[in-house]
Amino acid sequence: MLGRSDRGLLAQWWFTVDRGLMFALLLLMALGVLVSMAASPPVAERIGADTFHFIKGQLFYLGFAVPGLVALSFLPLRLVRRAGLVVFFVALALMLAALFFGPEIKGAHRWIDIGPITLQPSELAKPAFVIVVAWFLAEHVRRPEMPGQVVAFLLAAVFVSLLVLQPDFGQTALVMLTFGSMLLIYGISWFTVIGLASLAGAGLFLAYEFVPHVRSRIDRFMSPDKGDTFQVDTAMQAFSNGGLMGTGPGGGEAKLVLPDAHTDFSFAVVGEEFGLIACLLLLALFAFVVLKIMARAKHEPDPFAALALSGLALMFGLQAIINMGVNTALLPAKGMTLPFISYGGSSLVGMAFGMGLVLALARKRYGATAPARQPHPVYG
């Protein structure tokens, strides 16, 4: 039995880690297996694979994600920064390699084969990007003479450029929204805010004008009669079929015809087979994770930890919102996984990496609150 008087590494970790947050994340991973069991067998059979192909894959990657999540939560602050820096630049190198040597899947070069594993490096780069940007912005808070803001903008430009070249406009939007939110929390001038908003608007306009599939998705969202809306229509019908309590495990029909029922549209499968109540409970679990991390960031006296926690919470929450928004026809169709729920090895491991760093940053060893009557270094 562990006691508070113990001085061992395990005891110190157990009494300083946010156990409520950790168990919520592990619960999401467990629910992901349940959803995979419900959604993936018909998809596997359609592509001629073993019925449990995707379930086995989910369990395989969980074998890396769960131990990784726990192991990362042991890291001290200085190693969190170093881990983010190393992973970010390695992931950028792999993204660049994928453009030239990776397989082309649906017109995109987002993946690279590493032995028997196909990796999407951008999934690891996303949380690492938040850590690195938070580090440089925080250094500028401590030492105003250091050009931390300039470095952060340059890193964002390089990362976003690689995402556009793949192309992956959904991840681009997610990264830009997260980066912009971090800058607002950090505190930037209104001139910079207007400039960034104008730049984002110009980028969206250019994507609409010159990228056919972006134009198609926006047009179909604005005017569904202009194109094929099969997946979104089927997802909406799934929610209607599920009603309040759902059709029961295995009773859904959407997964029989949806090509991405196990990935992008897993939330629709939850709605059909487990009902509105299950969807609301899942939404509440995501909200609990995001709000708990943001509350910890609010009371974190270290500017790096406050910014990193805020950025990782926002990235996690925004990705969930985008996925659910697409499933419920509130946003234009975009392939993006529901964190820990949808099938996807790179997404699962990348999200576990980010949330493992969150657990490390949120440990009580850094001080529970900011100094009394002193302005917060980031939140004011």
Strand content: under 5%
Overall mean pLDDT: 89
Would you report the number of β strands? 2
Task: Please state the CA-atom Rg, rounded to the nearest Å.
Answer: 21 Å
- Helical run tally: 13
Biggest beta sheet summary? 2 strands, antiparallel
Structural class: mainly alpha
Secondary-structure element pattern, one letter each: HHHHEEHHHHHHHHH
Based on Cα principal axes, name the global outline. Answer: globular
Contiguous uncertain segments of 5+ residues: 366-374
Spatial order of strands in the largest sheet: 1-2
Helix content: 55-70%
- For the termini, the CA-CA separation is 41 Å
Polypeptide structure, described:
This protein is mainly alpha-helical and 380 residues long. The chain has 13 helices and two strands, in the order H-H-H-H-E-E-H-H-H-H-H-H-H-H-H. The protein has helices at 9-14, 19-46, 53-72, 77-101, 121-142, 148-165, 169-186, 190-210, 212-222, 230-242, 266-298, 303-327, 345-361; strands at 112-114, 117-119. It has a two-stranded antiparallel sheet. Helix 3 (53-72) packs parallel to helix 13 and helix 6 packs antiparallel against helix 7. It is globular. The relative contact order is 0.15. Residues 366-374 have low confidence and may be disordered.
